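Hi Y.,

Following your request, here is the sequence exactly as I used it, all 329 residues.
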Amino acid sequence: MAKKRTQTKAKRPQLTEGARAVGADGSIPVVGAREPCPCGSGRRYKACHGREAAHAVTELVQRPFEGLPGECDWVALRELVPAATVELKLRGGLPADVPAVTLATVLPMAWPALRRDDGSVLLGLQNDTASGDISRDLADTLQRALTAEPGTPVQGRRAPSDSPRLQDLLDPEGTFEPVVHSGFEFWVPDAEHATPEVAASLERANAAAIPTVKLQSVDAAYWCETPDKNHLRWVMPHPEEQLLDALARLHAAGRSSLGEGTRLVGSFRAHGLTVPVWDLPSGMSADDVEKPAAEFAERLAAALASDAPLTAEERRARGGLTNRQVTLS
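Below is the corresponding structure, written out as tokens. Let me know if you'd prefer a different format.
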């Protein structure tokens, strides 16, 4: 479930199509690319303010979940976890006809959102988004789902540039507590009576799901099982350069493992955060890694507190970790 997504980006200027004069607020209206720019520069629009507009459309928000409770878990559920749900709390509470809003990693038929027959809302997290601001696109989908007809899915679209983001809609004091599932039966209240399309989608999704468990001893760390070996993937909130230095210190000192047969093999970079990855023996369960992970967290905290220059051996270790880093977003 760790996959690259091509994303183009989000701040779309508020411009009036076909206008010919600068707006009262100083905005430059959109005209044809080869027409004179309405700002009066004498240059063609595409070579003047049109260039700024094109840049605004393609710019990427590097940390779309920054400021949300549980940012690290948002990243994990977006990129690493096959099947999980989280109950979301909205600012000001839920509408009277919406009994619950639930974030889900994936929805049937890859729907961006679904308004169930009972009025509750499921919001899909792992869909491709139309702009470079995942938070704004998800918030737009959520708002439309809240008013959709019960029993209907909600399609994705590029959110208006002045529309709210998740940070504006969700309760900043709310908790973010993912529940990891072994399959996708949470999609439907009664899987036995699902439509043929949903039943087929459910079967495919369950067959592809990698067994995954969220650790309890540390934040945003997820154990997963694969045929050859198990892994621990741990989303960390620390600044990347500081974290890589700390990991290099531990690696050079032989203290970066999680016990016998385990190995820190590299990291992902996802949505502005770094995700160290360990290989684990196939017989090492999620319960087995709880204590080693908590002990590693203590070693990491001490290494993060150090501001001493890296030694030659630590620099080599850092280079090895950096060379094995993969960017997911």
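Helices lie at 49-58, 71-79, 134-146, 166-169, 196-208, 240-252, 286-305, 312-323.

Thanks again,
Q.
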